[in-house]
Each structure stands twice: as structure tokens, then as C-alpha cells.
Amino acid sequence: MLERIENVNEQVIEKMFLLYAESMADMEREFKDRDEMEASYAAFLKEFIENPKQMVFVETAEKQWVCGLRAVESEPGKWFLEAVETMPGHRNRGYGKKTDTSCNGVFERHRRKKDRLHYRKK
To answer: How many angstroms separate the CA atoms of 25 and 19, rounded?
Structure first.
């Protein structure tokens, strides 16, 4: 099931660090310690999702986050997907493709909602 991350708290950061464990390990040497890294990532994620043209999604299976991605609306109705990652133990099961497909449905609903709001303002 696809979930959109709309709030950043300790639990979200903890789950994101599990989901992106490989990427986080690669970046760890850039920080003095894990606490600094978590604080920096929390600030980045909070700022990222506050922008209405940016979203973060996770795919869940058995109540566990198994795949995640960031989406950026590069121009009206066109979304760029980045940082797509699936947990190692859940790879090759179609979660990346499922997340991508589910996001496309969200983007289409988002576009229709914007179109309706624009129409009402005229």
C-alpha cells in the first residue's frame, strides 16, 4: 500500500534510515556522527515535503516500509521520481514498479484537483 509522508518525526526518520540503509551508510562519513546525520536528514526531509511541488512516498508490505521515493513536479503535471530504493530483502518482487504505478495515480488525482481549483477561480 502506498503512503505519502506528510509529517516528519522520530519514527519517520527511523523508518527512512532503515529503508535507505545502504544510501545512508554511503553518506555517513560526511557527518561527524549519526546524530548529526539524522538531524540533517530530518531538516532536509521536512523542508522537502513542505514544498507543494515535492512529495515523498513509501510502499508498505506487512506493515513494513519496503520501497520509497521522492517526487518533484518539474513543470505542471510532469513529475520526476528520484531516490527510488527498495530494501535489500524485498528486491525483485516488483515493489519499485508498484510504487511507481501507484504514484502515477496520485499524480493524476493531484492534477485533476488542481484543474478543478483553477476552473473554480475563473
So the answer is: 11
For the record, the C-alpha cell of 115 comes out as 484543474
Q: What are 31-53's pLDDT values in tens digits?
A: 999 999 999 999 999 999 999 99
Model pTM score: 0.84
Cα gap 29→27, rounded to integer Å: 6
**Three-class secondary structure of residue 76 per DSSP:** coil
CA–CA distances in Å: residue 15 to residues 49, 68, 90: 16, 11, 15
* DSSP-derived secondary structure letter, 32: S
53 neighbors 73 (Cβ within 8 angstroms):
yes
CA 34 to chain centre: 21
